Amino acid sequence: QSVLTQPPSVSAAPGQKVTISCSGSSSNIGNNYVSWYQQLPGTAPKLLIYDNNKRPSGIPDRFSGSKSGTSATLGITGLQTGDEADYYCGTWDSSLSAGSVVFGGGTKLTVL
Amino acid sequence: EVQLVESGGGLVKPGGSLRLSCAASGFTFSSYSMNWVRQAPGKGLEWVSSISSSSSYIYYADSVKGRFTISRDNAKNSLYLQMNSLRAEDTAVYYCARGTTVTSFDYWGQGTLVTVSS
To answer: B48, B96, B37: which is closest to B72 by C-alpha?
Structure first.
């Protein structure tokens, strides 16, 4: 059971918009920055969003991130078949003595 | 070009040990924190351990604390993970990843598979 809760799957048609939610608590999302990762089948994860809403160089502006309270959201517009992947949110969790990095369980995006 | 190349994975019996390595190139290794993240077959990402640029700060997931040891050699641009008392549930692909912030990992290696089985 992941500390951060994501929907197992989402789907949308090419060209449409989709959002993926990531729900946590005050010990993680509520007081820390959130990152988002894309993992294409058979490959290593790739950083899409950091510090809640910043995009690394080379990430298209079709990808966006936001945070409100203890939840974060990844948005993808202009969906392409190449966006089919697993998406993970991640943040710091300070509920344990030394703290830890935590990831959501992942969301599988299907572009119909 | 930033490159991270893991090695050292393989098949090991329960209770055994393994040492993973991650060779870094294309950036100033000594300026970045480094991390190990694993992914069991068909499962999601699980953070394993992090080490700061000068090794001053080290963190472990509860699931590996006391069994795994992270270390780095900045002179050799290398990151290591010593894994002892391995269990079946440690079976996973292990990725090394460069940290830009505490929870932001901007470059990942291709991963090395560790299988713990008798």
So the answer is: B96
Residue B102: band (very low, low, confident or very high) from pLDDT cuts 50, 70, 90: confident
Burial A2-22 (b: 16+ CB within 10 A, else e): bbbebeeebebeeeeebebbb
Average pLDDT over residues A9-27: 96
Task: Flag if A50 and B59 touch (Cβ within 8 Å).
Answer: no
Give the gap in angstroms from C-alpha A18 to the nearest C-alpha of chain B.
Answer: 21
Residue A97: pLDDT above 80?
no
A95–chain B Cβ distance below 8 A for any pair:
no
E strand map for chain A: 9-12, 18-23, 35-39, 46-49, 63-68, 71-76, 85-93, 100-103, 107-111
**CB-CB under 8 Å, B47 with A100:** yes
Query: Per-residue pLDDT for B27 more than 70?
Result: yes
Q: How far is CA B41 from the centre of its chain?
A: 17
